[in-house]
Amino acid sequence: MSLLVTGGAGFIGANFVRRRRHTQPREKLVVLDALTYAGNLASLDGVDGFSFVKGDITDGALVEATLRDHGVEAVIHFAAESHVDRSILGPGAFVRTNVVGTATLLEKARAAGVKRFLHVSTDEVYGDLGSDDPAFTEQTPIAPRSPYSASKAGSDHLVRAWFETYKFPTLTTRCSNNYGPYQFPEKLIPLMILNAMSDVPLPVYGDGLNVRDWIHVEDHCAAIERVLDAGKEGEVYNVGGRSEKPNIEIIKAILKALGKSESLIRYVADRPGHDRRYAVDDGKIERELGWTRSRQFDEGLASTIEWYRANEPWWQAIKSGDYMTWYERNYGGRGAAKGATS
Ligand code: NAD
Ligand code: DAU
Known about the structure:
It is built from 12 helices and 12 strands. The longest helix has 20 residues, at 92-111. Helix 5 links the parallel strand 5 and strand 6 (170-175). It is an alpha/beta fold. It is globular, with a radius of gyration of 19 Å. The protein starts with a strand and ends in an 11-residue tail after the last helix. Helix 2 packs across helix 4 (92-111) and helix 6 (188-197) packs across helix 10. The protein has one domain (2-183, 217-240, 279-295, 323-341): NAD(P)-binding Rossmann-like Domain (Rossmann fold). The strands form 3 sheets. The chain has a 7-stranded parallel beta sheet, with helices on both faces. It has a 3-stranded mixed beta sheet with strand order 7-9-11. Bound molecules: nicotinamide-adenine-dinucleotide and 2'deoxy-thymidine-5'-diphospho-alpha-D-glucose (DAU). Residues 82-84, 122-124, 176-177, 187-188, 191, 203-205, 210, 212, 247, 271, 278 line the site of 2'deoxy-thymidine-5'-diphospho-alpha-D-glucose.
């Protein structure tokens, strides 16, 4: 099979590509990524045998040529603008990539006869929960509250429409908060780790009691692979970590693990429209596809802290901005990325 991975230079996409090279070493793997600020080819360093196409999913001609030239049979669609704070500051890019980009990809993939299209979505499309509310199921009404989650909800609706209208073989996953290696340090866990390591204050939004359900990125990637292989066309599968934590508890755990003082904590103005709590009921993927998570949060957080400690060149290149010119420096803006076959 030839598999196209959009957004494969981002956090979850890169972890997925790394996994897939092991689980399906003979499969033809193609990564399509625009290398926005969140894309980083250094996250794929050392991975061999994939093709890399630098390009934007809103560029219909490029998407069409990529699908045709590589004989793509299946797509896993990670590419997105993914950070809520950025969506509040500038929603346009979110609508463009997450809505228009997904529509472009769906239409070109349908025309190319793609046999399986897995859309990677988020639990944030369900909105937020009070402390006693039951967890989101796949039947929970879509009720997004940020420009990011609204644009993801838009993409979910498009995916559903392509299945219902054209019988295009789609699958959708909705996962909770991921953490682990190669996460861009604008998200809570890597930001707090790097700030703590550098004795820089740790900004806590509001009262620090907002709750997220944390899952290790490797467990999410395993779930995606399971849905790609065995999921039922047209279905949505929730994926969660069964590990609900208030933000402040995680922040204090990071400080403790690094031997740093809680005096680094700074309570700052809250995020506008800040969702209070997410919790995911993922019984469906467990029952129907036999997936379950394997990483415990405490162990996963400890190994993630260790990863950031051991991989300073990766995050220093982000802090300095050098990672943005990695592609041009290595390939002069043309040709294949390191490890790529063409
Ligand atoms: P990320 O921001 O780390 O990576 C996004 C990738 O997409 C980057 O490599 C970027 O260069 C690429 N990209 C952005 N716009 C593009 C465009 N127009 N054309 C081509 N490529 C483009 O994101 P992530 O955290 O890895 O999330 C991946 C997917 O998973 C997203 O769809 C996100 O909504 C979803 N998701 C994320 C989480 C999480 O906790 N991070 C949880 C559930 C679902
Ligand atoms: O639930 C899945 C979603 O999780 C994904 O769809 C998104 O792509 C991903 O970014 C993530 O969204 P969140 O908004 O939950 O993640 P973030 O890391 O931005 O924030 C987590 C919590 O921490 C949230 O309650 C806001 C808070 N926070 C965040 C930052 C960056 C802080 O208190 N301080 C901070 O500096």
